Amino acid sequence: MRTLTLLSALVLISPMARPAEIESRPTLTADGARALVESALNYARTHAAPGAAIAVVDSGGMLIRLERLDGTFENASAISIGKARTAVLFGKPTRVFEDAVNKGRYAMLAVPEVAPFTPLMGGVPVEIDGRIAGAIGVSGAASAAQDDEIASMAAAEFVRRQAAHAAKVIHIPSAAVARAFQRDSTLIDDPEFRVNASRRTGAGEAEIHAVDTDIFYVTQGSAELIFGGQVVSPRSVSPGEIRGSEIKGGETVRLAQGDVMSIPRGTPHWFKSVRTPFTYYVVKCRS
């Protein structure tokens, strides 16, 4: 009897007893939430957001960090929490639900009776290796679209930083580099940085990168570049990327072979003219 009792106890406490009944999953920590909020706040401050409340929840929808810029309306905090919880519990950006309601699916508005539900743009899940680890919610910016842009940028930057741990040594032979310059293509695309082998044959559009700092190294030719000033006819081509027809004002620098130039994120810049052939490396730093 004692032997049977001991064997039964060992089976009950064995980690192999019921493997299907326990599951592990990634979840945001306090440090992760802090990093998300800092990214969102920095982006909001540099993109003319009049205010913003940022909430971060873990994989179970529990609030782990909340911050609000001065001047943000009082209820923005509660709304940002609702957006974050909706994004994590449903596993989708809240823009999906706002779009559905706008298209006439009003029945979705009954969901709050059974679960936290805020069908407003600005909630974005944070996904690591295909699993939802938490979510960020933003409210109180200039528009719902800007709420969503801030949240999306912060979530994307956080995921890129996590993926950086899987970085590896990369060697690209000179022949491949030469071919890349001919095609004006990317040599390395890492979560923390990207290296482009770039070729210009004429003036380009004015650009602003909200996330990337550009570092140029000129290998051939020369160009006139303007930085600072005001972008004319700006338009958003993707989250954090602005383009325009030209720059008014600003400072002019002439780039030549062997020159190196760094352009901090958020700084307008424009290749006004180039003397061909003009080739250069571009290192885009994302952290």
What can you tell me about this protein's structure?
The chain has 287 residues and is of the alpha+beta class. The chain has 2 domains: 30-165, Haem-degrading domain (Beta-Lactamase); 174-285, Sandwich (Jelly Rolls), CATH 2.60.120. The protein is built from 6 helices and 15 strands. The strands form 4 sheets. Strands 5, 6, 8, 13, 14 and 15 form a 6-stranded antiparallel beta sheet that branches. A hairpin with a 2-residue loop joins β10 and β11. α2 crosses α5. The longest helix has 20 residues, at 144-163. The protein is globular. The N and C termini lie far apart (64 Å).
What's the short story on this structure?
The chain folds into two domains: 30-165, Beta-Lactamase, CATH 3.30.450; 174-285, Jelly Rolls. Helix content is 29%, strand content 35%. It has helices at 2-13, 30-46, 76-90, 95-102, 144-163, 174-183, and strands spanning 53-58, 63-68, 123-128, 131-139, 185-189, 193-200, 206-209, 213-227, 230-232, 235-238, 241-244, 246-248, 251-256, 260-263, 269-285.
Rg calc: 24 Å
Largest sheet, described in full? 6 strands, antiparallel
Count of structural domains: 2
> Number of helix segments?
6
The CATH topology of the largest domain: Beta-Lactamase
Q: What percent of residues are in strands?
A: 25-35%
What is the correct CATH architecture of the largest domain?
2-Layer Sandwich
| CATH class wording of the largest domain | Alpha Beta
Straight-line N-to-C gap: 64 Å
Give the ordered list of helices and strands.
Answer: HHEEHHEEHHEEEEEEEEEEE
Globally, the shape reads globular
